[in-house]
Design goal:
By secondary structure, the protein is an alpha+beta fold. It has two domains: 3-149, Enolase-like, domain 1; 158-206, no CATH class. Helix content is 46%, strand content 22%. It is built from nine helices and five strands. It has helices at residues 3-6, 8-13, 35-46, 105-119, 125-128, 135-149, 158-168, 172-183, 191-206, and strands at residues 21-26, 28-33, 53-63, 68-77, 79-91. A three-stranded antiparallel sheet has the order 3-4-5. The protein has a two-stranded antiparallel sheet with strand order 1-2. The radius of gyration is 28 Å and the shape is elongated.
Length: 208
C-alpha cells in the first residue's frame, strides 16, 4: 500500500473539534476528548459497535500501591483477529484519604483504555501530539469546525417552491391560481404530489 493509503484513516480522524474537549486536572491540566464523540467517530469509519468494531476487557488489576484500577482493553476492527491492546487506568477512590470507593472506576478505566486504543489508529491525534497546548492551533480548529457545521443552503426545486406557495396561500382563490401557475412548469409525474397538497390546503381553508 502507498503512504497515502496507509495514512487515509489517520488523516480522516486526526483533527479534534474543540467543542468536544474539556480541560481536566491529572497532575497537570490536560485536554480530554469526549469519549462518546470518539465512539461516534469510530462508528462513522467502521460501522456500528459490535459489527464493524468493538472492544472487550481482557484483564483487570487493582493496583493497591497507586490506589488505581488497571483494565486491559482489546479493541478490534472488522474482525477479532485485527486488534490493538492497551491498559486503561482510573483511581479507586474519590477522596484524598482513600476511604470513598469510586463506583465508576471500572467504567472510567475502560473508557481510558478504549481512548488509548483508538489513538493508535489516529483518532484525535492532534491532542496526543500536544497541539492543543497551542492556542493558535485551537483557534484554527474552532474556525475550521464552525465552517463545517454551518447549515448548507439547499436549492429548492420547482416542486418545493410550489408546495411552499400553496401552504402559504390565504384563500381558496389564491390556491386555485397557484395550481395553474405551477402546473405547467412541473413534470407530470409530480402532479399527484402537488394535488395532494392542494387538496389538503383547500380542505383547511374551507374548514372541512
Amino acid at each position: 500500500m502507498s503512504k497515502e493509503e496507509n495514512m487515509k484513516l489517520w488523516r480522516a480522524v486526526e483533527k479534534t473539534n474543540p467543542a468536544h474537549t474539556k480541560k481536566v486536572k491529572f497532575g497537570r491540566a490536560i485536554t480530554a476528548i469526549d469519549p462518546y464523540r470518539q465512539i461516534e467517530a469510530a462508528t462513522e469509519q467502521f460501522g456500528p459497535a459490535t459489527q464493524g468494531w468493538g472492544w472487550e476487557v481482557k484483564k483487570v488489576h487493582e493496583l493497591e500501591a497507586t490506589k488505581q484500577i488497571g483494565v486491559l482493553i482489546r479493541l478490534w476492527v472488522y474482525n477479532a483477529n485485527q486488534y490493538i491492546e492497551q491498559w486503561g487506568q482510573a483511581g479507586l477512590y474519590i477522596d484524598n484519604k482513600n476511604t470513598k470507593k469510586d463506583e465508576d472506576c471500572f467504567k472510567k478505566a475502560t473508557t481510558d483504555g478504549v481512548t488509548k486504543c483508538l489513538s493508535y489508529l489516529g483518532f484525535n491525534s492532534d491532542i496526543f501530539f500536544g497541539l492543543y497546548d497551542d492556542n493558535k492551533y485551537v483557534a484554527k480548529m474552532k474556525e475550521e469546525f464552525s465552517e463545517e457545521e454551518k447549515p448548507k443552503k439547499v436549492k429548492k426545486t420547482a416542486m418545493d417552491q410550489a408546495i411552499d406557495a400553496i401552504k402559504a396561500a390565504k384563500t381558496v382563490e389564491a390556491v386555485e391560481a397557484l395550481v395553474w401557475r405551477f402546473k405547467s412548469s412541473i413534470k407530470l409525474e409530480y402532479d399527484e404530489v402537488l394535488q395532494m397538497h392542494v387538496e389538503a390546503k383547500l380542505k383547511a381553508l374551507k374548514g372541512e
